[in-house]
Amino acid sequence: MNPSRLLLRLPFAIWATALVLFASFPLLWILLSALRSPADLLAKPPRLFTEPSLHWLHEVLVQTDALQWFANSAIVAFGAACINMLLGSLAAYGLTRFKFRGRDAITLGVLFVYVIPPILIFLPLYVALDQLGLTNTYVGGILAHTTLTLPFCLWLMQSFFRSIPPELDEAAVMDGASTAQIYRLVILPLAAPGILAVGILAFIISWSEYLFSSTVLTRSEMKTVPVALAEIASSGHAPWGEIMVLGALTTVPVLILFTLIQKWFVQGITAGAVKG
């Protein structure tokens, strides 16, 4: 590469590196703090690098119900992600492939629901779940999180389905395929990256959701990680080591998941921007 071009790009590379380090520092500090001994964690002045210790991890696993909290979060987030992928793909297929009265109104309604603050739909949702006997159940938690994430996921998935040429549907009809067969054999394989991207976003949003979880899932055996973490942090003497460990363990699954499927995630996010 031409040295002059390298010199021109050097400032941008420096700025990009600085921004990445600045954005990553809180996460790095949480990870380092989670691996410190009690004395090193409270040392003044704080030290960046210390001898690793699993003291706080042992405390979290032995003294708390962390495994149950993570299991609850995983079940609710995975269930919400699956429902978002299923209902979102079906609704997006219908809204992008069929012309019927009120189609545009439904699309605008989805956008309207998405921009409404969650607190406004929280009360009627809680009353409905309580009357159905679904509070403090996995089904109730999954439905609450689906209510929160589905409007955005449906709106996003419509762009993926619009990027699939309608001519493929017409060709399938000429071959005698039914509507269900077109959806299952033609649309789903092409929209799979976008559907997967929506599922990832729904999982991440649900995994870190606090408002609905703190009221729909109130029993100790049904708590999710964000709820338990908030309760520990608001206690009279907050054990910062345990908080750091829980924060690190909450972040790690999302990072691992995104690392494993980042290729399909990027492909799905960019699919809706390309027509053809």
Description of the structure:
- It is a single chain.
- By secondary structure, this protein is mostly helical.
- The two termini are 34 Å apart.
- The mean pLDDT is 85.
- It has 12 helices and no strands.
For this entry, give a set of tags.
78% helix; globular; mainly alpha; single chain; 276 residues; MetI-like fold
Report the count of strand segments. Answer: 0
* Cα-atom radius of gyration: 23 Å
Could you name the ranges where pLDDT drops below 50 across 5 or more consecutive residues?
A: none
Query: According to CATH, what is the class of the largest domain?
Result: Mainly Alpha
Q: Order of helices and strands, N to C?
A: HHHHHHHHHHHH
The CATH homologous superfamily of the largest domain: MetI-like
Largest sheet: none
Which structural class best describes the helix and strand composition?
mainly alpha
Share of residues in helices: over 70%
Number of domains: 2
CATH topology description of the largest domain: MetI-like fold
Approximate shape = globular
Assign the CATH architecture of the largest domain.
Orthogonal Bundle
